[in-house]
Amino acid sequence: MNEKKSINDVEVAGKRVFVRVDFNVPMEDGKITDDTRIRAALPTIKQLVDSGAKVILASHLGRPKGEVVEDMRLTAVGVRLAELLGKPVTKLDESIGDTVKHTVNAMADGDVVLLENVRFHKGEEKNDAQLAQQFAELAELYVNDAFGAAHRAHASTAGIANYLPAVSGLLLQKELDVLGKALSTPERPFTAIIGGSKVKDKIGVINHLLEKCDNLIIGGGLAYTFAKAKGFEIGNSLLEEDKIELAKEFMQKAKDKGVNFYTPIDTVVADKFSKDATIKVVDVDAIPADWMGLDIGPKTTELYAKVIKESKLIIWNGPMGVFEMDVFANGTKGVAQAMADTEGYTVIGGGDSAAAVEKFNVASKMDHISTGGGASLEFMEGKDLPGVTALNDK
Ligand SMILES: Nc1ncnc2c1ncn2[C@@H]1O[C@H](COP(=O)(O)OP(=O)(O)O)[C@@H](O)[C@H]1O
Ligand SMILES: O=C(OP(=O)(O)O)[C@H](O)COP(=O)(O)O
Fold it and tell me: I want to staple 386 with a disulfide (CB 3.0 to 4.6 A). Which of 158, 264, 324, 393 is the partner?
């Protein structure tokens, strides 16, 4: 991949800079429940402020589908950002138009303005050229620091780069550096752990990582399609019938490439999908009919922990079981703990795995927690990210 210019490669003093961030934070009753993504953007914002730029921030929040949705305004985000920055943030109720133009033209060096949710405009997700130009007119430089949305080709993540010099922010650059280096020159043994619910969502990443890693560990709901492919009965566990052949192909590819392919050897089964279910631990070849596998078992957890501890680089995407329910959280917890204990370099691929290391209080022990779930997955599939491709080469 070509190296992209960053804010360290351009002059920003006195310039109006349109910075696309990913402030798509979880909210409950109008309150932010996790401000990780806001904190992650601070280094870029601070550096621009300290360098005398006029910082115009833009983000989406949720999926308002081109309509104004009151609950999806960025007002609470603006308040939180001002607290974290320790300076005022002017939050506007629009992201384009005369009021916005007027406000940004009156900014002093070092000022920070936060625009309204860009997805209130239909053109955002359509990557509409007219909307992209309206964003571009506000500024003299475009900075993309929204790694979490870099897999989207939208007006504020990609289209705008057609009309302004376009560079990456520090967060985007760091994400690309860590994930890029891990995949191009991994320290070995390199272990990839793939969990979550569906094989369908992880086909690309498993396929790509099989080219790169030494150990591939499978857990979560998708493990049962692999168990079925190995010829075991899996009761009522998650099964993607149409992916059984593919699962077989993956296991054959691993063999051909000399990759150790680990699937669960035992599993926690339940008589229903509920925290009040009756549960027991069985070997993977002994799942009773009418029961469903909802977590990896203790022998599997121990095996996976051993592999993790013997690895120099570990990338983890997707939980080992239904970790939202405590009775099915032990496998995910055990993997999280092994990630905390290993001396290897640990990378969490966003999404539910990031939530899991938070839940089990080991987030601070990880070397890198990606701010993008979908984006890090697509990157690990070897796909180009439109929000990155759009930026200027060095
Ligand atoms: N054995 C299982 N059966 C059903 N669902 C599972 C199982 N193991 C994990 N899950 C669910 O998978 C979900 C996460 O899947 P997914 O969205 O694919 O992962 P990620 O967000 O990490 O990419 C979690 O909500 C978890 O409860
Ligand atoms: O939260 C996000 O994605 P993620 O949950 O996959 O990390 C990003 O902000 C992208 O949002 P989108 O999936 O609505 O485009």
Answer: 158
Q: Which residues line ligand 2 (CB under 6 A)?
A: 22, 24, 63, 148-149, 152, 350-351, 372-374
Residues with CB under 6 A from ligand 1: 196-198, 201, 220-221, 238, 293-294, 317-319, 321-322, 324, 351-353, 373
CATH for 7-171 is 3.40.50.1260
CA angle 169, 170, 175 (to 5 degrees): 105
* Residue 325 vs residues 26, 83, 340, 349, 363: alpha-carbon distances, Å: 20, 34, 21, 21, 19
Q: Is 243 a catalytic residue?
A: no
Tens digit of pLDDT for each residue in 51-68? Answer: 999 999 999 999 999 999
Nearest protein Cα to ligand 1, atom 16: 196
207 pLDDT higher than 90? yes
- Name the pTM for this structure: 0.92
Question: What end-to-end distance do the CA atoms of the chain give, in Å?
Answer: 11
Domain 178-380 CATH class label: alpha beta
List, in sequence order, every residue forming a beta bridge with 16; answer none if it has no partner.
Answer: 54
Give domain limits for the chain: 7-171, 178-380
The interface predicted TM-score of the complex, written ipTM, equals: 0.94
Ligand with an atom nearest the CA of residue 63: 2
Ligand sitting nearest the alpha carbon of 372: 2
